[in-house]
TrEMBL record:
Alphabetized GO MF terms: aminoacyl-tRNA deacylase activity
Entry-linked InterPro entries: PROXY (IPR044786), YbaK/aa-tRNA-synt-asso_dom_sf (IPR036754), YbaK/aa-tRNA-synth-assoc-dom (IPR007214)
PANTHER family: CYTOPLASMIC PROTEIN, MULTIFUNCTIONAL SER_THR-TRNA DEACYLASE PROXP-Y
Protein name: YbaK/aminoacyl-tRNA synthetase-associated domain-containing protein
Domain of life the protein comes from: Bacteria
Taxonomic placement: Bacteria, Pseudomonadati, Pseudomonadota, Gammaproteobacteria, Enterobacterales
Positions of the YbaK/aminoacyl-tRNA synthetase-associated domain: 32-149
Entry-linked Gene3D superfamilies: YbaK/aminoacyl-tRNA synthetase-associated domain
């Protein structure tokens, strides 16, 4: 198990990089819409983290795919980006092992060497701040968007579903 909690690792990383953020303690929300209301943020400001695995050349590539909470992921596009044949959501056990978090509490940062961080560019185009659960369903961080991009350095891949 990690020596520090995910929240402690996050705040230490943000502090070390002089990030502009604030912490919010709140009641557990169910869906993204409910949590946005509790936080007082817009749904699209939510940074939704999905732990996926992509089958690729006989092995599994794990990805933390981050997109705005008002969008849906296109896992086939995600798989193609990393040269895989298909992608699917990781099991609760895999999520726990890779993030030390439960579904819904995964921050948009990877602290595991086998978990590749990918973000949809739309995350950086609409809002000055992003909001996300910080390793707990009862605690959120609201972070400056550019600070997130600078600190996390995710690979940018458009993988949200679009109407064609």
């Amino acid at each position: 198990m990690l020596k520090d909690t995910i929240f402690e690792r996050l705040t230490a990383l943000l502090d070390a990089n002089n990030a502009r953020y604030r912490v919010m303690e709140h009641a557990t929300g169910g869906r993204s819409e409910e949590v946005a209301k509790i936080r007082g943020t817009l749904l699209g400001q939510g940074a939704k983290g999905l732990v996926c695995h992509v089958k690729r050349n006989g092995y599994r590539q794990y990805i933390l795919a981050v997109l705005p909470a008002d969008q849906q992921a296109d896992l086939a596009t995600l798989a193609k980006h990393v040269g895989g044949s298909r992608a699917s959501l990781a099991s609760p056990k895999e999520v726990s092992e890779l993030t030390h978090c439960v579904f819904g509490a995964i921050p948009p940062f990877s602290f595991h060497p086998d978990l590749k961080l990918i973000a949809d560019p739309l995350l950086f185009e609409r809002y000055d701040e992003l909001a996300f659960n910080a390793g707990s369903l009862e605690r959120s961080i609201i972070l400056n968007t550019e600070d997130y991009r600078h600190i996390a350095k995710p690979d940018l891949v458009t993988f949200r579903k679009t109407d064609n």
